[in-house]
């Protein structure tokens, strides 16, 4: 009986508590967090930075270059399999998000097509999601939609959290505050999600990558620390 229960508990463990996290105090483990730069890699770089950190003394510094090929990310395909993916990362940005479209977290999603990504980034000076397959944004980038998101404060460590679920749910928090415009899914009424909801999108992400990607000339440096990818919310 006990053995059966113990076996059951072990069997349930991986999907219930699946989590990958790092504070980078032991350095940058490039087997755990390999570089990822789909299609091309010209200019961006990643390094361990001991001059700024959210906790301890180390963080990962992503010096992103301009243009799509200046993109660079680090990340993992070890995402929880239960359908819920919670990302928590402390993020520091050197330069404010401006009117141009950029991404700083990308997630491959085969449900969108081969080499198509669910992307978190900025446009219209605010945090937003972008679905690569049809370029839909969450929220709609109308004045009303823009007002339901927020800027990313610069030169300070922000706690950024995203929940992406296979039931269609997306939730987003910045410094533990819900970002209303970046919330969608069953039972949620988001009046500024018309573009997003024109597809019946059920995320099925197979990886999570942190970094920098711009589609024009935008250049920025982002730092990441205390990253966690798990099947339930870990909080700030
Ligand atoms: C985050 O917000 C929730 C709900 O508002 C609250 O219960 C929790 O204590 C907050 N956590 C932190 C770390 O502030």
From TrEMBL:
Its keywords, alphabetically, are: Signal
Domain (Cip1-like core) ranges: 23-232
Record-linked Gene3D superfamilies:
2.60.120.200
Instruction: Identify the Pfam families for this entry.
Output: Polysacc_lyase-like
**Residues making up the signal peptide according to the UniProt record:** 1-18
Q: Which InterPro entries match?
A: Cip1-like_core
Write down what this protein is called.
Cip1-like core domain-containing protein
Q: What organism is listed for this UniProt entry?
A: Viridothelium virens (Speckled blister lichen)
